[in-house]
Amino acid sequence: MEYTKLGSTGLDVSRICLGCMSYGTPDRGSHPWTLEEDAARPLIRAAVEAGVTFFDTANVYSDGTSEEIVGRALGEYAPREEIVLATKVHGRMRPGPNGGGLSRKAVLTEIDASLRRLGTDYVDLYIVHRWDPHTPVEETMEALHDVVRSGKARYIGASSMYAWQFSKAQYTAERHGWTKFVSMQNHYNLLHREEEREMLPLCADQGVGVTPWSPLARGRLTRDWDAGSARQDTDEFGGTLYLEEDRVIVEAVASIAARRGLSRAQIALAWLLGKPGVTAPVVGVGKEAHLRDAVAALDVRLTEEELKELESPYRPHAVVGFS
């Protein structure tokens, strides 16, 4: 395992972050393909044993049961001080007013609920899952600052939004002397590179760590284009992210993997890990082989010719994944 600083902070994180959306009760929430606790625990343990110290979940994943599973497993398999634990706020957790979003009431309610489910008194990184257009940014940033000042979070981060929104939030925090975001968890992979236009240069300039979600494009980069999966067949959100024209990139990944004698996942992750500014991809692991591929990708170096083969077929996409 390799370790690096999260942006310009002093916080060390593993270069592979275990994404824990794959773990949860299938009939809770909107992810029927998730793994129950008995199946999830060995994978979390294997990640700890492989040197992964960075774990990412969210309150909304499987209606809070992802946090419960992750909290119990990490409490057993690793000392709390060695783990960098991230969770998120924004998604709707209950019907009716104030059941979601980034109001002061929602933020302060949801951090306490997440801590109860995780079985810890603080998270290392508290992430706003999306932008909330219905709440003044001053209200959100002050509430997040209070979460940090109370000791319930060590740092705060953000996820998919426009660069102007992220800049506005950072400017608001700096203007008032509040805590600023130290990380951006964005949608970035070989099939969706629109973040290279504004968000990635902004993060590089401001010393913000980048932890891309869906680094393997919901698994599309790991199998033939026409091959399905239980997740792909039931993932309504994922079905909006990629286009038929992306097939040629998937084929390029397969071709390079075959020539190198490596898995397609290793090639796709090696490309992402090699991008300047990328701290740690958030990798979902449903089998131990997925974890082995992610760790092995740290040692893969792509040639200039291979990079051209992977990148040249890309065509501009509409920005997706912000909602």
Automatic annotation (TrEMBL):
InterPro entries: AKR, AKR_Detox_Biosynth, NAD(P)_OxRdtase_dom_sf, NADP_OxRdtase_dom. It holds the Pfam family Aldo_ket_red. GO terms for molecular function: oxidoreductase activity. The keyword Membrane does not apply. Residues 15-312 form the NADP-dependent oxidoreductase domain. GO terms for cellular component: cytosol. The keyword Oxidoreductase applies. Keywords: Oxidoreductase. This is Aryl-alcohol dehydrogenase (NADP+). It comes from Actinacidiphila glaucinigra.
